[in-house]
Amino acid sequence: MSGLPQGWVKVPIAELFEFKYGKGLPQEKRNHGEINVYGSNGVVGQHDDVVTHGPTIIIGRKGSVGEVHLSQQPCWPIDTTYFIDQFPAGLPPQYWALYLKSLCLGQQEKSSAIPGISREDIYKIKVPLPPLKEQRRIVAKLEELLVKVDVSQKRLEKIPLILKRFRQAVLAAACSGRLTTDWREENTDCVGANLVFAQKEGQSQGLPLQNGGEGEELPEGWEVTCVSKLASLITSGSRGWAQYYADSGSIFIRAQNINSDFLDLSDVAYVRLPDQTEGLRTKIQKDDLLITITGANVTKSARVSDHLGDAYVSQHVALVRLKDISLSPFLFLFIVSSAHGRAQLLDAAYGQGKPGLNLDNIRSVRVPLPPLPEQHEIVRCVEALFTLADQLEVRYQKAKAHVDRLTQSILAKAFRGELVPRDPADEPASVLLERIRAERAKSAPAPRSKVTPRPAQKTYTSKPEPLPLAAEPAVAYGPTIPDRILSAMQPGRDYSRADVTVASGITDAEWLWAIRQLKEEGRVRQTGERRGARYRRA
Fold first, then answer.
1. pTM of the complete model beyond 0.85
2. Residues of the chain scoring pLDDT < 50
3. I want to staple 429 with a disulfide (CB 3.0 to 4.6 A). Which of 19, 129, 268, 323 is the partner?
4. Three-class SS of residue 367?
């Protein structure tokens, strides 16, 4: 075949495997045994009975369409799956589970609004069949490589949490003075009485602050105040803004615009306000602090670092405007520090079981304030360290994308025949295919014989004598009949009465006599009643 390695053949997947339908098992009927129950997305529960009796490949049919899982133990695939539990000529289940996973079957069915994939569509797929020994060599190599990929992925998964903790540790050190310990020793002239507000013409000097903090010993020169003493305005958006929404106009800042502790205008709303509306009091200025006061992202905040033009906040966002805007960079760091401002706000938001803040909660936040020169140094150090963290995050994203592609790249190389060396002594795949066909043909159930119905005849004979009960046959049936029935039934499969009688060559009367005996002995189980009854070897 063109494009195939020597000794390989291409064949429809239908010639290799039967994709069987899973069997329904409602959650309330699962007995929580030791047998795994598989849905389309993996193990969904446990039971004390099985559908399959050995290694099984499970493929998502509905829901997580195309997801592939391999169970090395007997299991119960439910009716949202297909499964393969017969591997003719010793085909390795591990190889074919990985191959099916590489096909990304879930991406092939896009024609229906309800996610699903047709078994007939899968059967049409032609797959490369390597020699059996080469399949086993490929499995061994893949297991070796994919373990390394898995280890790399697990290590990479830890990096976002490490970076998050690093940023919070930086903020904690910054807001407690630990980050600038060396700076204070070198700049003793900046440590002294802390007058928060500079003396300006027409403006009174700020009130002296109380020394000391809550739970921390403050560095020399730091003093504690509260947000209400630092702010000239603390407010929140008005209700009823919905009537002013527009496709363009003034920017309208909502909670989702600050849910990552920075101002994100990628999904911004707009409003058009009539003149002298009450909402004008919430117009945003540069260096304002914005704090989420309701909803799941309560306490998430942002600093307005640029001029936004005409912009306003919603009722879910508080606006804090400082008397001295030079304090804004440091105060923002304090507010978003999980060990400082955010901790106080969260205590207030959830202290009474309500996920929300009022403006008094914000006014009462206590702030240990360094001298202004030290604030500038703290902000500079934090920005430098955060820039380093951002650079590491970019490198992490690139590494993660590379590792995420690595598995598919390795699988593609394996199934092109490029992963392991070929051995000229291997049995060709064409010979393997003939053995597979012969084995599957031998194990296929015998076709039903067609019975030509007799034409109905109208008779007027007297009522016949009733037939004897199956448990009391008119003749003595041979003891081999139950064994013939069991021989015609493969373990793990369901059969109808007609399937078994045709395959075993027994009469209906013999069936009735023998099946009752087999059920009483526990050697055969019956599901369903009358016409829908199915039978399985226990």
1. no
2. 1, 111-112, 193, 195-213, 459-476
3. 129
4. strand
